[in-house]
Amino acid sequence: MLGAVAASTTLCFSPCTNSTRIVVLKRISNSTLTLSHGHSFSLLSTTPMHFSLHKSSKRQPHFLAQAASSSAANAEYVEEPATYVKFQTRLSFPGCSNSLTLFGTGYREKVFAIIGVKVYAAGLYLNQSITDGLNAWKGQSKDAIQGNSSLFKTIFQSSFEKSLQIILVRDVDGKTFWDALSDAISPRIPEPTTADETALTTFRSVFLDRPLKKGTFIILTWLNPARLLVSVSSQGLPSTVDATIESANVASALFNVFLGDSSVSPSLKASVAEGLSKVLK
Description:
Layout: E1 4-11, E2 20-27, E3 64-65, E4 74-80, E5 85-88, E6 90-91, E7 100-112, E8 115-126, H1 142-146, H2 149-157, E9 162-168, E10 172-173, H3 174-185, H4 194-207, E11 211-212, E12 217-224, E13 227-233, E14 243-246, H5 248-259, H6 266-279
Parallel strand pairs: 3-5
Antiparallel strand pairs: 1-2, 2-4, 4-5, 6-7, 7-8, 8-9, 9-12, 10-11, 12-13, 13-14
């Protein structure tokens, strides 16, 4: 049984005209969840959803994206609909000086023999001060924002913190995860410098010879455009930093992998664009 009672409310970015699903979990006995087997859904839906209070649900989430030692009795979560992973709407990450706000969620899918297999869910968190520098895009629609590479470059170049929280929904070998990430990063750094190569070696060392079990958290935090923190934990939200990547090219390439013109997670970018459109009304 799920050790919590779930209720629904709405996530509003001021001003709020549309609603996004939030699940409020109230602890009963402990923070441990018994997870059901996976289910499959289609692409991320942006249709507004409204839910009434309910005591139980026929489907259970794979994982609960929260700090294991959270002191909050009630916490608000957004569910990524394709994987059922729930992301807390505000979190403090290792190495960050401020808590960050969730702006969108999505998933990563790999195709094997024409079958799409979901590998992980992801949520993008931003320091809300970043939106103060986005006034040039006020009033734009979600679709306009999603297709505007200049806006996402402005977000990346901001000196305020931003973080990507990845939660695996299946077992993955560490080398396999790194190889896929490296294959996406490398074309985005056509002429790597010695510093870039060193940074990539440090990045790679976090994942080699490390089994990544279903439910593992991977946190990628951009402290600034040239400094990236990497944290990994199979026991809930990480509390320490595993590696610091000192390379503007690597940091930029990684951000582009997820939020650039050819995102590896179109559902994540679409969801973030929707969140930004609500803030920039």
